Amino acid sequence: MPKHQISVVVLAAGKGTRMKSKLHKVLHAIGGKPMLHHLLDSVEELSPQKTVLVVGADREQVEAQARSCEVVTQTEQLGTGHAVMVTKPALQGIAGDVLVLYGDVPFIPTKLMEQMITAKAATANTGLVVLGFRPKEPAKYGRLVTTPDGALERIVEFKDATDSERQINLCNSGMMLIDGSKMFPWLASLSNNNASGEYYLTDLVAAARADDYNVSVVEASEEDVLGINSREDLALAEATFQGKMRQRALSGGVTMTDPSTVYFSYDTHIGADVTIEPGVVFGPNVTIEDGVTIKAYSHIEGAHIRTGATVGPFARLRPGTDVGENAKIGNFVEVKKAKLEQGVKVSHLSYIGDATIGAEANIGAGTITCNYDGFLKFETHIGAGAFIGSNSALVAPVTIGDGALVGAGSVITKDVESDALAVARGQQRNRAGFAATFRETQAAKKAAQSDKKKGR
Ligand code: UD1
Ligand code: CA
């Protein structure tokens, strides 16, 4: 038996006006990942036969991010029932049941979807499974009206509900599993004779009951069915997501002094015995191996930090950074597209970009790899065990050999061979007694000037 005979419909044609954004609502990111992808990740775990995404006017935007979904346009938003109706050509000839999800409800766990599938399979004539929840503030949600024996009778939209129906605290999340062979006939029976003048998907409950099918309810937690309609909701979703990521890090063996100030990306991989100080932000694509310490207020994206390395405080690691084992990146250091081998130290105030640095090399304070001439980028290669004196500018393309020394304050424009010393700065000349003589003559000049002013 196949795991599930199921297709998924994701509704995302609503205008999302309250977001006040040119970006489609479902493309707004949570933890650095579009909310649509949060949802599709969970959907893909079900291995559905087909996933259909229903969008409105801004099809192109969403299509580019729709992964394996077939995208269908609902030209006019005539309601959730109508939105599912327009998937008819796309679902032609597909066997099995249909799970309807909302693109702006991104955190539905796969387990919950499976629970709905199990609930439907429990009795042969279950035609519909509704995902309900009991929100702290039931507000404008549709209410699940049950019969005295606890069966679901119908769903009433808030706008259409009587005062006593509005007292019901079991609400409709909107998610529904629908019998595949019955879905389109039931949808065809819907009318838009209601307070909104829309075709309500929720009316399928009454349609199924009228057809002598059972309807069951699976209850979700409010957190799992969190919907996003505004930037406020988006911020709340981000907070929820960050909470989960922090919890995961803590239970995976990460020490965080103040977890609430650390921000993860959806794909941050962190090993064990890692310490993360306050105010650290992870952008996408970061891997941190065991025993690493990230000191306060560092910003890290697209970086691989290897075992035992130390980063920060106030470090910025940009995409393509590879920090070797036990290496040290200190304060106010920016690294981009650079591979630092084991034990490398870049301890203070540097920019390292488009570079390789060999094992145990020491990069002095204020060293800059000058990688850009305003048009093109060039690479800097620093050998193992090299020592770059403070405040040096390495003008790429340039190679410093293994074990070479660069004198502080040098502007290096030519390659330096292994074990050589390169000094590229003005020569120092000392003149004995100059300062004392200078002070004497200047003081005398100043005194003469002020005598003249006073007319003496
Ligand atoms: C819907 C439910 C309500 C439930 C609530 C949960 C109906 C009639 N009502 O109400 O019972 O408590 O969700 O949040 O289903 N959409 C389309 N095309 C349309 C209309 C909507 O694709 O023509 C999409 C939206 O993009 C959104 C989802 O369907 O993803 C829900 O639409 P929305 O307008 O938010 O539904 P509610 O009125 O909030
Ligand atoms: Ca909504």
Topology:
Blueprint: E1 6-12, E2 29-30, E3 33-34, H1 35-44, E4 50-55, H2 59-63, E5 70-73, H3 80-85, H4 88-91, E6 97-102, H5 110-122, E7 126-133, E8 143-146, E9 152-156, H6 163-166, E10 171-178, H7 183-188, H8 204-210, E11 214-220, H9 231-251, E12 254-256, E13 269-270, E14 274-276, E15 281-282, E16 287-288, E17 293-294, E18 299-300, E19 303-305, E20 310-311, E21 316-317, E22 321-323, E23 328-331, E24 334-340, E25 345-348, E26 351-357, E27 362-363, E28 368-370, E29 380-382, E30 387-388, E31 393-395, E32 398-400, E33 405-406, E34 411-412, E35 421-422, H10 434-453
Quick summary:
The chain has 456 residues and is an alpha/beta fold. It is built from ten helices and 35 strands. The strands form six sheets. Strands 13, 15, 16, 18, 19, 21, 22, 24, 26, 29 and 32 form an eleven-stranded parallel β-sheet that branches. It has a ten-stranded parallel β-sheet with strand order 12-14-17-20-23-25-27-30-33-35. Strands 5-4-1-6-10-7-11 form a seven-stranded mixed β-sheet.
